[in-house]
Design brief:
Layout: H1 3-7, E1 21-27, E2 30-36, H2 38-44, H3 73-82, H4 94-100, E3 110-112, H5 118-128, H6 141-154, H7 161-168, H8 179-190, H9 194-207, E4 209-210, E5 216-218, E6 221-222, H10 231-262, H11 273-289, H12 305-313, E7 323-324, E8 329-330, H13 339-347, H14 356-369
Parallel strand pairs: 1-3
Antiparallel strand pairs: 1-2, 4-5, 5-6, 7-8
Region (Disordered): 55-96
């Protein structure tokens, strides 16, 4: 075999040498039949799927990807059996014995992976068959996402550990923008990248738009797919909190001027009522122009925090001109609150977005990957 043949991908790449287990896959838009070695496949996913009695109407017991990527009850139970404590102090239960004594001939002879991304599935199968020459040193982002989806679905993050921290994620994920931010968050979630996860959660909080029905979007794309369970609701709560603090900046200034006017006092440091009215009028008009006046509740704001910050930082507020006389100088620049500085201070606020359940899951995933490599993060 020459070097070219060694690295070339066959017409049906899902047929592996000594394959004794048939699989169905979808690859480049086509439904194809492949074969894998049972011994290699067991490294990929355990337990086996139900045997397909009729290939035209396949059924399988398999995790689904829908928001939280919940694993099926059957897979979870059998995975628990696989992790049973083998010590003498913990004898196997009847259920465990029943599974362990199951005849070999009941093992599935055909597996249906047709709902899975074909390229990601093929990559994982290359790994378990030790065909590392086909594993990309730097997979494109969409492929990396789909690999994360399958690693989460089949609980097999350990398979890709040798590549994660050496080549795949060396450039980090926190530079993702737009729709990729949500997908990068999911990748960090699957591979237990705690610090990256929290950076991306904060970034997503500032980038998402929430429509009137409560759906979250980044640009024209929604964020329903590939999100850790419960994280969007927590992001929306944190988002409302930050928006409330941002809106409070101009609203407080308007209310302060009106309150002082009622008591015949002045906000202007030089006690000039005309200056107060100039600030009040220009500020409220500026807020009207960006649809922030009359006062808006945080939950009614659909634009992103980033866009809201731009609007607040560009509010044009007028004050009286500085006057100079023989006896004094009246500088009214300080009569207008520095909205930009206050906005920047709000953005520096520490806010807890992810919950303890997210922290626990990240730790679990991290431990799966640190059996060989300790204390490494992106």
């Amino acid at each position: 075999m020459n070097l070219k043949d060694f690295f070339s991908v066959p017409e049906n790449p899902f047929i592996f040498d000594s394959g004794d287990l048939q699989i169905i896959a979808t690859y480049r838009g086509k439904r194809i039949i492949g074969s894998v070695r049972s011994s290699a496949w067991k490294k990929f996913v355990y337990p086996p799927f139900e045997q397909l009695c009729d290939s035209s109407t396949p059924t399988k017991s398999k995790a689904t990807v829908d928001g939280g990527q919940e694993r099926s009850k059957e897979q979870s139970n059998a995975a628990g059996v696989a992790r049973e404590d083998r010590s003498n102090d913990n004898p196997p239960t009847d259920e465990v014995l029943q599974v362990k004594q199951k005849p070999e001939n009941t093992m599935a002879k055909q597996l249906d992976f047709s709902d899975d991304d074909g390229d990601a599935l093929l990559l994982l199968l290359h790994i378990v068959h030790l065909q590392f020459q086909y594993v990309p040193l730097k997979p494109e982002f969409p492929l990396l996402l789909q690999v994360a989806v399958l690693c989460d679905m089949y609980d097999c993050v350990q398979l890709v550990q040798p590549w994660l921290f050496t080549t795949w994620l060396v450039d980090g994920l926190d530079t993702a923008v737009g729709t990729e931010t949500g997908h990068a968050l999911f990748i960090a979630w699957v591979f237990g990248l705690e610090s990256t996860f929290y950076v991306l959660v904060r970034k997503l909080m500032e980038e998402i738009e929430v429509d009137e029905s409560g759906e979250c979007h980044v640009g024209a794309s929604d964020l329903k797919e590939y999100m850790p369970p419960g994280i969007l609701e927590r992001i929306k709560l944190a988002r409302n909190s930050i928006i409330g603090l941002l809106l409070e900046i101009p609203y407080t200034q308007v209310e302060q001027i009106m309150s002082l006017q009622r008591s015949a006092s002045h906000s202007c440091r030089h006690k000039k009522g005309r200056c107060d009215m100039l600030v009040y009028g220009s500020l409220t008009i500026a807020l009207v122009l960006v649809d922030l006046w009359p006062k808006r509740a945080p939950g009614s704001i659909t634009i992103s925090i980033k866009e809201l910050v731009k609007q607040l930082e560009t509010l044009r507020v007028e004050v009286m001109e500085t006057t100079v006389s023989r006896h004094c100088q009246e500088n009214h620049n300080d009569c207008n609150n520095n909205i930009g500085a206050k906005v920047a201070a709000v953005l520096q606020e520490e806010i807890q977005i992810a919950g303890p359940d997210h922290f626990e899951r990240l730790l679990i995933q991290r431990l799966k990957l640190t059996e060989l490599v300790l204390n490494r993060d992106i």
